[in-house]
User: Fold these one by one.
Assistant:
Number 1:
Amino acid sequence: MYYAMPVVFILGIVAIALEDKIKVNKSATALFVCITLWLMLVFGSQDILVERQNPDFLQFVKQTELENFPVKDQIVRYLTEKAFVPHLGDVAQTLFFVMCSLLIVNIVDKHGGFMAISRSLRTENKRKLLWMIGLSSFFFSALLDNLAAAIVLIAVLRKLVPDHTDRMKYASIIILAANAGGSWSPIGDVTTLLLWTGGNITAWHQISHLFLPALVNLLVPLIIADFWLFKKGTKLRQISNLSADDIYIERIPNRSRIIIFWIGISSLAFVPIFQTITHLPAFMCVLIGLVFLWIYTDLMYGQINDIRESDKLRIPTLSRSVDLPTIFFFFGILMSVAALNVGGQLSLFADILSTSIKEPYTISIISGAISSVVDNVALVAATMGMYPIVEASAAMTPHMQYFVTDGGFWTLLAYCAVTGGSIFIIGSATGVAVMGLEKISFGYFFKRFTPLAVLGYIAGILLFLAMA
């Protein structure tokens, strides 16, 4: 069972990649893999946890004073109290964040909050829009975080590009740009926030040392895509008629649209500050924003009586638009990785990596490549546990200098763990969210944008090493 679990996971990833060929939805595959892995963990627990001396299991038994209990009871207590429920809580936090973010963006969009942004980005030139979307994603993700920025820009993109074939290209660029932008900001991604709050890297050091590598990571794909994706002189097809929702928007006071916009964006932008002050999960801040939007829009529609069918824009109605298959896909992938974490396969791989490779930069680069498949948050958290921060002193060796606060290992890891998630579309929360929103298949992204992501990833690393 122990070695069969990674095989099942890899086969599941392959099935997701071949979704168009096997005609099975990726969400169903992800859920099947998730359930299978946890069943294998339960029925193979004697081998996986007891006979292999799983350190987390042994520590749990010792801490809870279960040494004299039957082994079966020890396993049940561990799997429920230490394994499944805590991981389910972590995954639920991510799912709530995604759901609330999607709903907030949809509310702001339906009430005309993104009109100003979409008008400033509107152009008929496909190549010009490519650069505008890419650079906007790059800087927005540093301010909001890459997932929230991608969700916002997808909403804007839908107003600018009516053709779905063209929109998939821009949406894929948003994934690359948002992850690149998230790597140089301490609040740009969950992993960078983890390294920042953990004391592994300081904010100014990260910005000053990773901005240029991250920018190169974006520019390389953009330059290639500029010549490759769109023919010279091609123009976007423009939307000529207002939709029914747009007609309602015109009747909403401009002041109300502005307030709705700032409530929505603030609830996303202040997530890192909220976490730092309260130490509560990120989704709580987004949930607060959703509550404020709910109260404000209900009061607004109570005063505006001339908008017919305003119920279409109320939050209970808009909440039905949340894409459940995408949420199921998120759940399946994240809980599958959690099963491998509980089973010890991820720890084994990390130990093999650390013992066979001594060069710190190489470990960072390989970890980034692995994050294209494995959740980068779990990967970085495991890495932080494997390599504690070294106190700077005159007696430390040259090798230890890589692991001090703001050391080269942590700095490059921040870049690699985030941008490495762009290699495959399922390698980051940003990619998975955009994948669900725009119905982009694994194969479509792999054929067209994985090579661009790899080139950008390598180019950024080379620049970082040149600057080090």
Note: The chain has 25 helices and no strands.
Number 2:
Amino acid sequence: MSNELMESLARQVETGGALYDGRGGVDDAVVAPARRRVRRARTMRAAGTLGVTALVLAGGVAAALEWQGGRDRVAPAITSVPHTPDAIHGITADDLRATEAARTRGETLPGQAAAVCTYDEVTNPFSGDVGGVAYNCPAVWIGDAPLLDLSAAATVEPDGAVDVTWTLVNVSDEALVVDRDAITLGLLAEPDAIVESTTGGDDTTVALSLWTSDAERFVSAQSGTEPVSLEPGETLDGGSLLLPQTLGETTVDGMVEAMADGTLDPTVTLQVRIPPAGLGWAADELFLEASTTVASTGTLDPVSPAFVDLEPRTRDEVRADAQAAFSCWLGRENPRTGEERLDDAYWTNARCDAAWIPGGPQVTLTDLALTERDEYNDVVATWTVTNVSDRDVSIDARSAGLNIDLGDVGGVTMSGGTTIGWTGWSQDGRARYVDLPAVSEPVTLGPGGELHGEHHFMQEPGLKSAEVTLTVRVVRDDDENGDRELFLELPWAG
């Protein structure tokens, strides 16, 4: 059975050298800037399943890795909005809320659909860089005529990603102050349904619906604000690339497949924050909602046979009848198959599902030695991988990545396929970060065959007692397709 357990995809780009120097300060120096950049990139990262209570979306070292990878589309393009902060003018939330009326699910009125969320200073994401929050908020109508109109398109990529683009236009006859850094995109399968839980991400929500009751809407809001004046007829353009692993863990089963085969025309809903007078924050924040139904385009590639029979795995699981592995979904971001020209020193760091390959162990790490090499405390790790199965195994010799887990040390260094200082595992033990280079060297090991290699890195305290793991990529029959990658996990038991 398939193990489409993908939680999210995050990338670490490093071309030799260390990402972090020393320990500590990770949250302040790295995570907060990373969170802001990821937010601006308008890409999706799941925050988990939310019930009727508020959720504060927190960052960690994993979040720090996400912003390094880059995107084909970064911040949404903003057109026809040349206004500087000094020139911001127009209708604010204070003006609009004077026309506010309660909204009930199923109603069709001529006003603008909206939601009002109540925060205090600690939880209000616009009062400072306090992270993101998700609330169920009262639904309201604003005024008696539309203010914003939305057009959108959704394309299913061959690897299962969904590319959503949108254009928002001010259809009123007055300038409107909108917060272009506080726009959340919802991709919905049944927009009029009531749901008990919703998967929320940074700037994207994928769900059956945003209705959590007949009178409440789900709103996911992130810290950061950038008010602009949107004149009558002016537009904002933007988009999000929704990654397959995040789509796979949403509350909507089979959504991408239904979009690809034409049986589902999803609804795209934008929730747009309207700042209060003074452009600061308010106890009651107003989010205008604009929606449209789109006919999806694009098709899915067939799933590689290498991924069909994978079974889900957790970190502490032990099985003698299967090979420990990681299943990664990289799509267009795969440095090995991507169009971008990268040098041999380029490595990326992808978050991958832990999996089992049934049928018994295939290869193991049969030798590992850590030796201090010179007066600069440089260390060389020499290792041997052995095929312990009764059949040929094809692996990528250049992909061998060494992970040295020093425990909770508060920092991490990465260089040339060596990661030192953290586990790399997700908190639930179902996913881990795996190193992948831009170059490959396929080799075939017959039964008993060996692959030898070495990694060089700087000495670290606690190195001799660290938990060491080697990962190596499986070379498949369809190896030219880099949408997914399969890695074998080889812990050192010496």
Note: The first strand starts at residue 14 and ends at 15.
